[in-house]
Amino acid sequence: MSRLARILPGSLSVLLFFAAWEGYCRYSGISPLILPAPSGIGVAFAELVQERATWRHFGVTLGETLAGFFIATVTGVALGGIIARSPLLERAFHPFVVASQVVPKVALVPLFVLWFGFGPTSKVVVSAVIAFFPVLTNTILGLRSIDGGHEDVFRAARARPLQRFRMLDLPSALPAILAGMEMAVVLATIGAVVGEYLGGNAGLGYLAVATMNAFQTDRLFAIVLLLTAMGFALFAAMASLRRLLIPWHRSAERH
Amino acid sequence: MSIRVVCQGLSKTFVTRTGRVAALDPIKLDVAPGEFVVLIGASGCGKTTLLRIIGGLDTASSGTIGLAAGMPGRNGIGFVFQQPNLLPWMTVEQNVALPLRLAGMRRAERLDRARALCAMVGIGGFERRWPRELSGGMQQRAAIARALANDPALLLMDEPFGALDALTRARLNAELERIWMATGATVMLVTHSISEAVMLADRIVVMSPRPGRIREIVPVPFARPRPPAIEESGEFQAIAGRLRRLLAPEGLREVTTPALLTHMPADQRDATEGSA
Predict the structure, then answer these.
(1) Higher-scoring residue by pLDDT: A221, B69
(2) Beta-bridge partners for B217
(3) pLDDT category of residue B239 using cuts at 50, 70 and 90
(4) What residues does B16 pair with on adjacent strands?
(5) Cβ-based neighbours of A222, under 8 Å, separated by 6 or more
(6) Distance of CA B11 to CAs B29, B42, B61, B113, B221, Å?
(7) Which one of A2, A149, A230, B15 is most buried, by most CB atoms within 10 A?
(8) Is B133 part of the contact surface with chain A (CB cutoff 8 Å)?
(9) What is the mean predicted confidence (pLDDT) over B71-83?
């Protein structure tokens, strides 16, 4: 398939979508306070990115997201590694793991604000808590899926435990861990933004609420666009990390 | 460098939900230094279990194994499995060099040795590829190279060519004989194939199932190296016939088996008997 034939259907449908949106806004007489036209959002976006304050808020949200993602990854991999090794610990932790999967964590945000204040700390905590579970479960899955034949190779060669961990366990589990991290980076963004919605005075989530209260709907769309761009950049960075760390794995092949 | 393997009263019992299952009745086996011994038998006769116990991958329920004479220490055993079991995150040369890396050899040195081994097993030029880029036969060659990496005194092979087509298998049999003659290692190889057993072995240990035990030990007197044409000789066929009768299920041996088997092509014959 040629490059053009691959890209064309997608770009065409996106273009058509925006054309229909623009047309509807112009001819239906709908208030731009309810649904602004793409062109209006474009103008608002251009204004938004030129303001200094925007990038301060952007930096706050990005910082919270990265901190939450980092904490989630480190604790998820560490705890997953411990649980995968010990059936006893897994049984002990099981109720907590299930409960924390099922509890709608977003509903806990007011509690985190109460405990950790209106500053960035509560947002980092929300972000980490939400992003933690895919890392944990995927780490356990990855470490449990080590090929028995590969284990035999290391046993037959009398590998020491640390050698086995470095050359077998870690690389075996890495594809699953990276898949968990890919989910986690998206969830960490959501966590940070939701945290900002509910309290504080900084970050793109706060900016979105403030903009909404001022009925600047086109600007609100522009902020969502900026958040989308941030999420996409983080996701793309994870995909590059995947290609860098596991070039041998099928998931790292370019499509 | 080679090694003598002495098994005394070696047995293995598995405990399952329904009770105890004897996988191996006490085994007595003495393999001479530099000897090529083939273990053959139906599925469930414990030949793989025996090999894994000798290689330290399983523990015996009772009995002892002695690995005597020229005991080379930590890395004296090379193991080739039914599957290549190459690590997909290492290139072919890194896979071959793995035992050397585990033994602490320096990087440049071990990769040099790995490349020499790749050339020896006939996969020169593929050292930098990922395992998934190699065919099944080439992957198994790489696995053999890995097992040979630290010059083992004892090479244990568990149906190493079972997953390969007949032609590749015959070629690798010949190369294995050459490698064995060059290294002088003691080899214990498990197979389902009667012709592979007669082609390679100094002695063939015929095992029977439930519980796994040694039924008979058949010596193969042919000189080395053995040309492929030897398979058509009367002596070869006589030994193969004897193995076939030993391996046929009890009761069926006298009447049905010979008539049935003479109408089957040779490769199918092996497969049928192996699973019988």
Answers:
(1) A221
(2) B205
(3) very high
(4) B19
(5) A41, A44, A45, A47, A48
(6) 12, 18, 6, 38, 30
(7) A230
(8) no
(9) 72
B57: which chain A residues are within 8 Å (Cβ-Cβ)? Answer: 152, 155-156
Q: Is residue A166 part of a domain?
A: yes
Query: Does the ipTM exceed 0.95?
Result: no
Print the domain residue range for A204: 37-245
Please report which confidence band the pLDDT of residue A43 belongs to, taking 50, 70 and 90 as the band edges: very high
B98 and A CB contact within 8 Å: yes
Mutate: best of B52, B57, B83, B85, partner A, most A CBs <10 A? B85
Q: How far is CA B192 from CA A213, B22, B140, B256, in A?
A: 78, 21, 17, 21
**B168 touching A (Cβ < 8 Å):** no
Q: How confident is the model at residue B250 (pLDDT cuts 50, 70, 90)?
A: low
Other CB atoms within 10 A of residue A146 CB = 17
CB contact under 8 A, B132 and A248: yes
- Taking the C-alpha atoms of residue A70 and residue A62, their distance in angstroms, rounded to an integer, is 12
Question: What CATH number does the domain containing A206 carry?
Answer: 1.10.3720.10
Q: Quick check: is A251 in a domain?
A: no
Assign A117 a pLDDT band (cuts: 50, 70, 90): confident
Average pLDDT over residues B42-46: 81
| Confidence (pLDDT) at B273 | 42
- Chain A's closest residue to B154, CA to CA, is A156
Write the pLDDT tens digit of every residue in A133-175. 999 999 999 999 899 999 999 998 888 889 999 999 999 999 9
Q: Across the interface, do B74 and A147 touch by the CB < 8 Å criterion? A: no
- Minimum distance, in Å, between the CA of residue B76 and any CA atom of chain A: 9
What pLDDT score was predicted for residue A2? 76
CA nearest to B140, candidates B180, B178, B169: B169
Single pTM value for the model: 0.77
A152, A158, A168 ranked by CB distance to B74: nearest: A158
Please count the residues of chain A: 255
Q: Is residue A16 part of a domain?
A: no
**Is A150 an 8 Å CB contact of chain B?**
yes
Residue A254 lies in a domain: no
The answer to whether residue A47 neighbours chain B at the CB level (below 8 Å) is no
Cα B97 to Cα B23: distance, rounded to the nearest angstrom: 34
Q: How many domains does chain A have?
A: 1
